[in-house]
Amino acid sequence: MTIKYAIVGAGAMGREHIRNIEIIDEAEVVALSDTNSESLNQSLALLTKDIPAFNNHHDLINANLADAYIVATPNFTHLEILKDITKSNAHLLIEKPLCTTLQDCKEIANLTMNYPGIIWTAMEYRYMPPIQKMIREIHNKTIGRLHMLSIREHRFPFLHKVDDWNRFAFNTGGTLIEKCCHFFDLMRLIVQSEPSKIYASGHQDVNHLNEKYNGKTPDIIDNAFVIVDFINGVRALLDLCMFAENSKHQEELCAVGTKGKIETGVPSHQSGIASSDFRIGYRKNNEVKLEKIEVDKTILEAGHHHGSTFYEHKAFIRAIQNNSLPEVSLNDGLMAVAMGEAAELSIKENRMVLMSEFSF
């Protein structure tokens, strides 16, 4: 069974989806839509056959060509597009963040309460091979009971997007939603508990300060620390810097349990490194296990997320074929936005935020 995809949004992430679907035998892209003709043309050029292209998502939906839709449009458009696309009852892969606010996420959750298709929030960082191995080892109790988790992302500034929509928190939800929902999702997945309180410290110190759009200066945070306490007692830390592009690793993860510690990283695209070191250090006898995690070159070249988009699609397709539950649910997407919203609020109000302040 070949899964027919239609993609709403032909920008950078839409093109990454195309490149990955093109190397999956049991999937094909059958239609695209985007309001920007240049983005559409760039995406169409990646395909090995001619397909219909539409300048709005309404015509794409009405054409009824797809088994599954990918929503890869700017964050602030998700809510209105999802209101339309859910009428199709098709399977949905929705790029993160699910929406820009918790309130909008709740509206989508209510709208899709008895939805017949699979709704999957695209959190591709779950599918990076070194991170997948780390999750397995933690859940298998390799390092005993988990107590501390830290995630560092030191990377390049936000890229330029069509109409510069990603320069303002109103459009993105704020950096800790737009960028960091990935990491809050990973925290919940790894810790296997819900957050109870969040404290964040961050600011816009370096990036975009000299830019102006319609007379306005961008207002997106470019560095932050976020501490998350979970109900089960585990503590997690996010360390974000968006002006550290010349890093060996773009992501570095560390988990400490009663029996030992796991460390791994994801190479930055600029480093040219294709593999990841994976280290387990046991407390007993100072034993160390080292492993190198490799990613197939073809898969690596299909995107900018260390092969994860490919593996995400394989899992999504498997769920469709087996009529199984999504591995990354709409609720996972909602909770990631809620944590980001709490972190943004913590910075704005200079205080710890209790998750009980939000209604779910």
Automatic annotation (TrEMBL):
<dbReference type="InterPro" id="IPR036291">
    <property type="entry name" value="NAD(P)-bd_dom_sf"/>
</dbReference>
<dbReference type="Pfam" id="PF02894">
    <property type="entry name" value="GFO_IDH_MocA_C"/>
</dbReference>
<protein>
    <recommendedName>
        <fullName>Gfo/Idh/MocA-like oxidoreductase N-terminal domain-containing protein</fullName>
    </recommendedName>
</protein>
<feature type="domain" description="Gfo/Idh/MocA-like oxidoreductase C-terminal">
    <location>
        <begin position="137"/>
        <end position="353"/>
    </location>
</feature>
<dbReference type="InterPro" id="IPR000683">
    <property type="entry name" value="Gfo/Idh/MocA-like_OxRdtase_N"/>
</dbReference>
<dbReference type="Pfam" id="PF01408">
    <property type="entry name" value="GFO_IDH_MocA"/>
</dbReference>
<feature type="domain" description="Gfo/Idh/MocA-like oxidoreductase N-terminal">
    <location>
        <begin position="3"/>
        <end position="112"/>
    </location>
</feature>
<dbReference type="InterPro" id="IPR004104">
    <property type="entry name" value="Gfo/Idh/MocA-like_OxRdtase_C"/>
</dbReference>
<dbReference type="InterPro" id="IPR050424">
    <property type="entry name" value="Gfo-Idh-MocA_inositol_DH"/>
</dbReference>
<dbReference type="GO" id="GO:0000166">
    <property type="term" value="F:nucleotide binding"/>
</dbReference>
